Amino acid sequence: MGDLSGNYEIRRFPAVSKGKDGYAEAETWGRAVGFGFHDSTRTPEHVARSMATYEADGRIFTGAYQTGTPAQHSLPAEVPVATFGTLRKTLNIGFGRMLEAQMVTAVTVRTSHRRRGLLRRMMTADLQAAKDDGVAVAALTASEGSIYGRFGYGVASLERTIKVDTTARFNLRHQATGTVEVADPKVLLDVAPKVFDRVHRNTPGSLGRQEWYWLLASGSMGRDGKEDPAIKAALHYGPDGGVDGYVSYKFAGWDTTPATVEVVDLVAATEHAYLELWQYLAAIDLVERVSWNEAPVDDPLAWALADPRCIDASDSRDMLWLRILDVPRALAARHYPADGRLVLEVTDPLGLTAGTFILEVKGGQAAVERVPAGDPEDLVLDVSALSSIYLGGISPVTLKAAGAVSEATPGAAFKAQQMFSVERPTHCLTHF
Ligand SMILES: CC(=O)SCCNC(=O)CCNC(=O)[C@H](O)C(C)(C)COP(=O)(O)OP(=O)(O)OC[C@H]1O[C@@H](n2cnc3c(N)ncnc32)[C@H](O)[C@@H]1OP(=O)(O)O
Fold first, then answer.
1. I want to staple 204 with a disulfide (CB 3.0 to 4.6 A). Which of 102, 180, 229, 422 is the partner?
2. Ligand 1 centre and the CA of 348: distance in Å?
3. Cα(326)–Cα(201) distance, rounded to whole angstroms?
C-alpha cells in the first residue's frame, strides 16, 4: 500500500515555455490542472502554446506533491495532487488609480486528496506571501460561490449573459460619430492590447489581461488550443480615425435558432464606440440574435435602445472576487469622491489584516490610521464585506440590509456608499 496519509510537500516554480529547464515539471502541473477541470483533451501542442502564454504572464505555479510512495499503479509522485496558480496584474480601483493584485487561478485538488486542507494550506501561505511582498489585494473568479468567503474574499463585481434581439425591433437612439469596418481578426494581436489598455485605465474593477486573451480574440488559439477560423472581427474608428474599440465574434451555426452571433470579446474605449459596435452587431445580415456572456449588469445598451426589452438578461452573477490583504494600504490607495470620516472595525478569518482603522478623507485624499480596539466604530464588517465595497460596485447599504455589515453609527453605511462610489460602473472584462 502506498502513502495515503496526507503528507505533502508544497513546491513553487515559474511557468516556462517548451525547451527551457523546468518544462517537464510545468507541463505535468498543467496536466493536473486539466484533470481537475475535467479537460482531458489537451494535446502536447496545446499545452506548449498555453505554457508560452503563462510564461509571458509571469505565472507562478504551486503544487502539492506526495512525500511518501504513491499507491501502487496510481499516478506517480511527480504529478501534483493539488495545484494553485498566481500571476500579478494591475487592478483599476477607481478614478484611474491602479493597484497591483495577486490573481489566483487554476485551483484544483485531486478527488482522492480533497478535504484534507490542501486548498486552505496553499491559499493561506500564498496570501501571506503576497502580503509580505507588499501586495494589498488578491483576486479570483470562482467556480462555486461557497468556497472563497471563508478566506476573506468578497464579490466585488457582477456580470451577466445577455441575448439581444437584433431583428427590426432593435433600434438604438444614437447618432454614429465614428465608423465600423471588418478586419482580419489577426490584426487584434496588435490592436486589442492597445484598446484594452485604454479600457483598463478607464474602468473601475478592470484587471490587466493575460496573454491568452489576444490569441482568443484574434482566433489564433481557441479554447481547444487550435486556430479558430470561425472568428470574425470588426474595428471601431473614432472621429480622429484611430481604432478605439473592437468586437470579436462568431456565428453559432445554421442549426441554432434564432440565427445567432456570439460575442467572443467586446472592448470599447469610448461610450460611442460601445454603442456603435452594437449597431454593427445588430446590422449583421441573416442573424436575429447576438449573445454575450460577459456583459455588464449596468449596461448603457439598455438605456440607448428604444425598446430595452430587446435584451434578455436572466443570468446575473458574481464575477470578480476581491480579498484585501492590507487594509491601510488598500484604503490609502483609493481616491474618494466624498469627504468624510469612518471608523471601521474589520474582522479577518485568516488574521492577515484585522483591526480598527480610521479612514479620514479630505479633498478626496485618504489618511488611514490603525487604532487600538475599543475606539467607537461606525461600521463593523468582515474583510470580505470591505473587499466587496472597495471597488464601488457593491453597496454597503445592501450589505447592511443583508447583515454582512453592522452599522454602529446610524447612516454610516450610506456615508460609506458615497465615499466608496466610483466614476462609472464597476466591471471586469478579464476572466482568469
Ligand atoms: C480560483 C479558482 O481556480 S476557482 C476553481 C476551484 N476549483 C474547482 O472548483 C475544481 C474542483 N474542486 C476542487 O478541486 C476542490 O474541491 C477544491 C479546490 C474546491 C477544494 O479543495 P480541498 O483541498 O478539498 O479544500 P480544503 O480541504 O482545503 O477545504 C478548505 C475549506 O473549504 C471548504 N470547501 C472546499 N471545497 C468546497 C466547496 N466546493 N464548497 C464549499 N466549501 C468547500 C472545506 O469544507 C473547508 O472548510 P473549513 O476549512 O472552513 O472547514
1. 422
2. 19
3. 23
